[in-house]
Amino acid sequence: MSATIIDGKAAAAALRERIRLQTEGFVARAGRKPGLAVVLVGEDPASSVYVRSKGKATIAAGMASFEHKLPIDVSQDELIALVDSLNADEAVDGILVQLPLPKHIDEQAVTTRIDPDKDVDGFHPVNAGRLATGLNGFVPCTPYGCIMLLKEQLGDLTGLDAVVIGRSNIVGKPMAQLLLKESCTVTVAHSRTRDLASVVHRADIVVAAVGVPHMVKGEWIKPGATVIDVGINRTEDGLVGDVDFAGAASVAGAITPVPGGVGPMTIAVLLRNTLISAHRRAGVAYDKDAL
Ligand SMILES: NC(=O)C1=CN([C@@H]2O[C@H](COP(=O)(O)OP(=O)(O)OC[C@H]3O[C@@H](n4cnc5c(N)ncnc54)[C@H](OP(=O)(O)O)[C@@H]3O)[C@@H](O)[C@H]2O)C=CC1
Ligand SMILES: Nc1nc(=O)c2c([nH]1)NC[C@@H]1CN(c3ccc(C(=O)N[C@@H](CCC(=O)O)C(=O)O)cc3)C=[N+]21
Ligand SMILES: [Mg+2]
């Protein structure tokens, strides 16, 4: 093993501390806490764990957490009515509806109902469009967390060859947009890509966001490359990523572990987006460089 292990847990803790400090300043000036509303439909254990750790982190940062738990058989109309009430609630700066939703609910109908200026997940098409055109909006938390880890590890990313494996609207596509914004040369691979091994072998930066345990092999990695493993797969061997960690760590320059890599950054960036939303909505300036 030769690669540096990128400590996402430590980076996330440091970011959360910087957020906590700016939250104090916001409360002093605005006279209220930033507020994050999280909506969970049903009782999926993995989703419940995520929502719980998010709620704890929100409160630890000095923000208000509003949790709404709805039964698995809630109607789409009822869920949309809740989103409407959160859109109208002045105490709510950020709204997150935990995905996936049950099959009888149209995720797009719900996601697009959220006020884009409270869409701290960055999933609304208005925010996807803002990201694609260089306007200020909300950037999806997981890809932004990956960029923060990459910049901390590598500094300036200009000119680097980046390969993103996965083209979902919530990870792969926004990840590619953000790497492009950092002036990387970006390739987006997916299930129809031919000879993925040789595509990956060109890359200085590999971001795996697939959902297939251990799919990316060590031999695919260019020696010294930086590997960001977004995958969260629950297997008999516990939580594993999309990258064969042991194989990749023997050739990569640096690599994120699972757990303890990208996952903790996702939650920290969610708080960052909520803090930014609170400042924007209150018309108060914030220190972007400290976030
Ligand atoms: N750490 C975190 O905070 C988060 C982790 N995740 C994890 O990241 C992973 C990806 O999530 P998400 O983007 O939502 O997943 P999706 O299922 O929406 O997308 C998966 C992508 O991977 C591609 N793909 C599937 N199989 C292959 C293959 N054999 N070779 C190449 N590409 C393939 C698909 O291609 P195609 O488009 O052609 O079907 C698709 O674009 C999951 O493990 C998820 O749990 C997700 C969000 C947050
Ligand atoms: N509207 C919405 N927004 C999301 O951001 C969203 C979502 N829905 N649905 C599910 C995915 C997944 N996701 C994770 C966040 C943190 C960890 C995380 O903290 N993982 C820890 C381990 C946690 C554990 O042990 O289970 C780690 O990787 O170290 C993982 C996954 C956010 N998602
Ligand atoms: Mg559905």
From TrEMBL:
Pathway: One-carbon metabolism; tetrahydrofolate interconversion. Pfam families: THF_DHG_CYH (PF00763), THF_DHG_CYH_C (PF02882). Its EC number is 1.5.1.5, 3.5.4.9. GO terms for molecular function: methenyltetrahydrofolate cyclohydrolase activity; methylenetetrahydrofolate dehydrogenase (NADP+) activity. It catalyses: (6R)-5,10-methenyltetrahydrofolate + H2O = (6R)-10-formyltetrahydrofolate + H(+); (6R)-5,10-methylene-5,6,7,8-tetrahydrofolate + NADP(+) = (6R)-5,10-methenyltetrahydrofolate + NADPH. Residues 140-280 form the Tetrahydrofolate dehydrogenase/cyclohydrolase NAD(P)-binding domain. Residues 6-121 form the Tetrahydrofolate dehydrogenase/cyclohydrolase catalytic domain. Keywords: Amino-acid biosynthesis, Histidine biosynthesis, Hydrolase, Methionine biosynthesis, Multifunctional enzyme, NADP, One-carbon metabolism, Oxidoreductase, Purine biosynthesis. NADP(+) binds at G166, R167, S168, I232. Belongs to the tetrahydrofolate dehydrogenase/cyclohydrolase family. Catalyzes the oxidation of 5,10-methylenetetrahydrofolate to 5,10-methenyltetrahydrofolate and then the hydrolysis of 5,10-methenyltetrahydrofolate to 10-formyltetrahydrofolate. Homodimer. This is Bifunctional protein FolD. It comes from Sphingomonas immobilis. The lineage of its organism: Bacteria, Pseudomonadati, Pseudomonadota, Alphaproteobacteria, Sphingomonadales.
